[in-house]
Fold these 3 entries.
Entry 1:
Amino acid sequence: MISPPLLYALIMLAAPLAMVVTFSFWSQNYLDLDTTITLKNYKEAWSKPIYRVLILRSLNISIMVTLVTVLLAFPMAYFLSFRVKRNKALWLFLITIPFWTSYLLRVFLWKVILGYNGVLNSALMGLGIIDEPMTFILYNLNAVVITLAHAWAPFAILPIFVSLERIDRSLLEAAEDLGDGPFRRFFRVTLPLAMPGVIASTLIVMIPTVGDFITPKLVGGTDGLMISNMIQIQFGKANNAPLGAALAIASMVIVGSVSLVIFIAGRWFRGRAQ
């Protein structure tokens, strides 16, 4: 029974990844593809300053998006789990409403909201809070973080909600009987037991955001471009698929290393709390 999904995973996931790895060791001069094994692409990917800047910026944006998303998602998940007594399914249904529209359309809507004459600036000027439109909220890193945080919020809320739902409420009652206040009870019982959901949310948000190229292209401007945009250029206009593949593999290695550190840190924190 496992063979059909296994075959599907091999064809749709493993085979393309193997092709990317293979391409990264080749070289290309416009239309001429040389299949001789070489490390030239990796040397260029790690030595050129522009690539290092884009990789570090992508990692920085991804970490910022993850922090903002998870920190905002946890209170929502906590509210749904501990405060909502009825119609939880309705609340979860409302959380999924953003998925009803195209991701591309949502990005364009954020351009309308954050634009120079957009909804946010017009509202603040109408209320007399600002005298002239703010320019630091669009076509830069801030716009990318805001847009991605909104796009990935449901993916962060749901895993945390599931972990909170699995917590045995008698443990919280026991902590209260032993004299723990709300804050101490939260950090000693609730947060450690919810850590698997927090770790899952962190990885679910962080890993894909590094590879997002639509959002930086539409709302990031020159200061918000990420390594994924450079990879797209290498596979497209530059017609240098081997270098693009090497950049992709380098990004995967960095993201994988950071994800492993986050996973180990989360398990260590939970173990210490227990």
Entry 2:
Amino acid sequence: MKVALLGAGGGGASALVELGLAGHQVNWWARSEETLDPHKEIGGVDYEGVFGEGRMEAALITTALDEAIAHTEAAIVTLPTTAHAGVARALVAAGWPADKPVILNPGHTGGALEFAEAWRRAGGTVPPIVEFSTLTYVARKYAPGSVTTTGKAGQVRSAVLGGGDAELELASALFAAATPVADVLASDLCNVNMVLHAPGAVLGASWAEATGGDFTFYVQGLTDGVARVMEQLDRERLAVARAFGHELPNLIGEMQRIGTVEADVTDLSDYRAAVSGGVANAKIKAPDSLEHRYYREDFGHGLLPFIELAAIAGVEVPIARSLYAIGAAATGNDYRKTGRTAEAMGIAGMSKNQLIEKVRGQ
């Protein structure tokens, strides 16, 4: 299959490797020439980690979006969720057809809803939008032109906004980890990063600033107190999911399905031990500043849309609201100006039943 891969960070580079190993033809796009230049020099990416070691070539590497999407069967967006609305507008301008799917890997919380609303406002006919609950990799680019992939997801939740079996089958053909759920609200509420990052980001903010992130976020940064807040936030997530008709695993169970909690963990109630014992995340450093994506992405595009969904569901989420308020104050950001509000997701003023009807195409 020939696909357009949008994004050249750790996730995009890992996706190039996985798709290439599976025999797919990949046109690789990013906005930045500076990001792509090292990859152009070698024709692709040097890789190490769970996929082994080697070099994976791309069919095309370009900053020209119209060239990247030409004659492709799907567009795969592996960019931070803060870039989704802009990418939607860019794809409309580049002429992406309404009958070919866009896959958000990841969509996180409210990704498909925001993407579709940005597309609609740009004047385009919205294509099928597939949303993954989280990125299918744990990966970092430690050197230009290369990627280190320390984890590959066993399962991530996937759904199509408004429904679509054919699009889910296509996404599963590209990414074996894609596991269908009933609707994008279920995939939204399986966004582990919101629960995994926000408590430690808030409670460890001074340590992150003082040390420049020189500690391991999921081990040294995950104290008993952080773990207790994480568990309370997770309970709120499960309550909102239940209000929308979804019974979901707790954070530890979901991470175990993904593969970032070890398979032999049996106590799913011990958040600290389960998360800190995960091999894929063990060496990952904490944010080096309050501009890190754990703040920019997981507050405005994680906690904020979660709070908006909770309000529609009629569920109180005091821990989420508190973390959001403190995170916004600490960073000095008004995430409501840039984040996934109900308005940005196109769901402002909806009742719970209206939202369910929207995501299921009823």
Entry 3:
Amino acid sequence: MRRSWILTKLFYCLFLILLCGYARSDATASQLPSSTPPREAVGSGSISGECPSIVAFGDSLTAGLGVRQDESYPARLQRTLDAAGYGYRVVNAGVSGETTAGGARRVSWVLKNKPAIVILELGGNDGLRGLSLQETKANLERIIQQLQQASVTVVLAGMKLPPNYGKDYTDGFESLYQVLAKQYRLTLIPFFLDGVAGSPSLNQADGIHPTGEGYRIIVERIFPKLEPLLERKR
């Protein structure tokens, strides 16, 4: 029994060490110079620079950590838009390890792309690090307010946390996305990883980041939320 308890504790400590590694990458990534352009997602090549842009703004789940760029969700979303005949350019503005505080510092960088729509996927790293829910909510509000002031339509992607963080914290974390969506009249994706989280076949070895197939399912589920906001087809 004691051996099992020690192994469990060691595993938990290892997880925290790995998590801190992601946190350190955030400290560097969030300080990228504002002149650094976001990556354009891989599309059909038929979209011109005249088309409106959709910016996928988030952390490693948006960046596509661990998969080829053409397997990330922004690239897959681009292909879905192309196939449906929509003339939008999808930009991957994901930074691995990003927190909401780092995201708030990057809003001006995102706005340089003159997006029509921003899909905001941030907060997961805040929750995994146990940061204050009030701080996370305030940072997301700052991002949303700045985007809306620039006449950008915001789609908010909600996140959930493992139950080991305590019911009060996990419930509060999940509900803050619902509160913000209602307060700012945003289209809400209730859970960005819906249908993917917890599935070994749809996640990489770390159990956190989706595989290419996992991202395919993510796009399949978020597209119906996004499509009513699209204004024109080619």
